[in-house]
Amino acid sequence: MFVDQVKVYVKGGDGGNGAVSFRREKYVPLGGPAGGDGGRGGDVIFIVDEGLRTLVDFRYQKHFKAPRGEHGRNKGQHGAGAEDLYVRVPPGTTVIDDDTKEVIADLIEHGQQAVIAKGGRGGRGNMRFANPSNPAPHISENGEPGQERYIVMELKLIADVGLVGYPSVGKSTLLSSVTAARPKIAAYHFTTITPNLGVVEVGENSFVMADLPGLIEGAHEGVGLGHQFLRHVERTRVIVHVIDMAGVDGRDPYEDYLQINRELVLYNMKLESRPQIVVANKMDVPEAQENLKRFKEKVPDVTVYEISAATRQGVQELMYAISDLLATLPDKPAVEEVAEAEERVVFKAEKEPEPFEVSRDNEVYVVSGEKIEKLVRMTNLNSYDAAQRFAKIMRSMGVDDALRRHGARDGDTVRIGGLEFEFVE
Q1: pTM, to two decimals
Q2: Low-confidence ranges of the chain (pLDDT < 50)
Q3: What is 161-334's CATH number, 3.40.50.300, 3.30.360.10, 3.30.70.100, 3.40.470.10?
Q4: Which among 168, 220, 235, 409 could bridge 333 via Cys, Cβ 3.0 to 4.6 Å?
Q5: Fold classification of 1-155 (topology level)
């Protein structure tokens, strides 16, 4: 099964909790704090495996969660960091944040890696909070939660040659005649509904050819699943434009030629400069010669290769022409020059989140914000000292003043994340 788009959930591992502990040794009557830090959580890392060709595995496993770090221990022992979770993906995978629609990573080369969800840092043990005014603190931190997000994975095939054209022009027949690929071939439109790949051997050279499902008018807007088909064209080095020169179903080969090129350009303007070979197929049909003559009169500057994929007439010459053209082009796919390799950002720095905002939920004042909600999750509220520290940090952040400005009074309920407490003047 060929799968080229999936949505999955990823979560970095939570950091381990810091420990509260004190030295309890003979002859050390005033042993100080000795609680160790928690270990960091594991990252979720995608790594390219050139042996994969589809995202089908992600249809059956949609959740990827890295392990959490170990908790801190007594005697100043820090918890171990967790192992990172590596997930293998095929080359040509683009990873997009489902909420922001931002491209997180564009994974192309074998072995390339990208951090998709960062693990949380470990919480600090009470050793870290000792100071002259409080030499024996009962404060420790919980581990930082790991980053979690839903992502959309899109696969754009990396092939040397992409066959494009209207449905039933003979793309699948051409692929099957020059490779060991066996795409479904039948006498109706849209027989091919997923891309097919095959390796073409030409003398001592070889190249990968992709048979892409037929395009129709409006494909650049998604008509007829156009986007799913067109994205695979982006990473081909050469476009082979197959035209039904026999004009089956009363179609005009010249109009088909113009319309397909129009759809390519409307989808991505950079495809206009992609090397293209024009192929006149079904030349074994009597009407094809007259149609070809009219076609060449309208596009005199275009070299047209005459073939019959069914009888293999002219197919070998076409394969040599494609091979010669590929030899003059860069080895890398011309992916919008892969957006100048998109400087291939494997992890983009997060913008500093806003500290908080205050809203009302009926009678409850709700304080929300990534930074303050993370602080709540990392605070061990079972400890009096830790709770006092949390209240002090909230005051320094201006939460108390913001609640007053919104009308909070003594005894009103305030909610932060999953924590509810009374507002005290």
Answers
A1: 0.69
A2: 1, 183-193, 218-227, 334-348
A3: 3.40.50.300
A4: 235
A5: Spo0b-associated Gtp-binding Protein; Chain: A, (2.70.210)
